[in-house]
Amino acid sequence: MRLKLLLAGLMAGPLCLLGVCPTVLGQSRPSAPGTGTGTGTEIPGNFATEAPATVLQHYHAASPLAAQLYNGPQYLNYALRYTERKDHQFFLTPELQTGSVAYNQQQFDHLPLRYDVVLDQVVLGLPGSPLMVRFVNEKMPRFTIGDHSFVRLVADSAAASGLSTGYYEVLAEGRVQVLARRAKRKQERIVGRNLTVEFIPTEKLFARKDGVYHLLNSKSAALKLFADRQTEVQAYMRQNKLKLGKTQFENVVVALASYYNQLPPR
Q1: Alpha-carbon distance 263 to 210, whole Å?
Q2: Strand partners, 100
Q3: Residue 110: its pLDDT value, please?
Q4: C-alpha distances in angstroms, 220 versus 123, 210, 214, 223, 255?
Q5: How far is residue 19's CA from residue 110's CA, in Å, rounded to a whole number?
Q6: Fewest CB atoms within 10 Å of the CB: 29, 55, 138, 169?
Q7: What are the tens digits of pLDDT across the range 86-120?
Q8: What is the CA 63 to chain-centroid distance, rounded?
Q9: From the centroid of its chain, how far is CA 76?
Q10: Angle between helix 52-62 and helix 2-12 axes, rounded to 10 deg
Q11: What pLDDT score was predicted for residue 171?
């Protein structure tokens, strides 16, 4: 009986049954039907536990827009091949996080996502199922995961900024845009007869000003961004006891950029 209700719901409102509510970019999105709150923020548990393969077949047939989300290549969790693992390959947590994607010129909200920062790939999961699908990067210009927003940038071979093609977290917007490249590298070791791995962060910070990207890898590189308002920025740093040290470098750069972007342009 519950499966019949599920299939009826798929036909009646398939695009929002999972909380996946696609809209054409630039258009408003209606509230998700059948969610109780109209927000579509939770994925029904019975979808994942009751005949998931059968339900997915009907879901894809009934909603071609949402079905395109599952048309990417399968994601295999390569970390499982290691006997021992230190850390993981994902952004913040290996658990699914709620997010949204702009994909094939459609906006999809309330998706269960992971972001593999080793491969620079966003992964779509289905709670209660081992199924994971990779999005095609070229079809996805931006996404959010939790409270974090990412955009895809394409490197300019003529530029000397060190910026490579991939996703960057947007930390500040305005005349100075601050972007972080979230990344990790794998370091494998053979211990006895065991293959172990450690995932080591290799993040980089960039800023875009006047259409040019700058790698921020030192105090001088950061302060150079605000040279045209040096007096105000240095006073702001003294007033708020801000220092561009190693441990707080990213946070201080974001604070300075946010302050700078509030100043009236000259």
Answers
A1: 16
A2: 144
A3: 93
A4: 37, 18, 12, 5, 16
A5: 6
A6: 138
A7: 999 999 999 999 999 999 999 999 999 999 999 99
A8: 25
A9: 18
A10: 20
A11: 99
Find tokens 């999961």 and name the residue.
125
Could you give phi then psi for residue 107, rounded to 5 degrees? -105, 125
Share of the chain above pLDDT 90, in %: 65
Burial of 164-191, coded b for 16+ CB within 10 Å and e otherwise, reads eebbbbbbbeebbbbbbbbbbeeeeeee
For the chain, the structural domain boundaries read 1-71, 218-266
**In which band, very low, low, confident or very high, does the pLDDT at 23 lie, cut at 50, 70 and 90?**
low
| φ, ψ (nearest 5 deg) of residue 177 | -100, 130
| pLDDT tens readout for residues 137-171 | 999 999 999 999 999 999 886 566 788 999 999 99
CA–CA distance, 264 with 262 (Å, rounded to integer): 6
Could you read off the pLDDT of 217-253 as tens digits, one per residue? 999 999 999 999 999 999 999 999 999 999 999 999 9
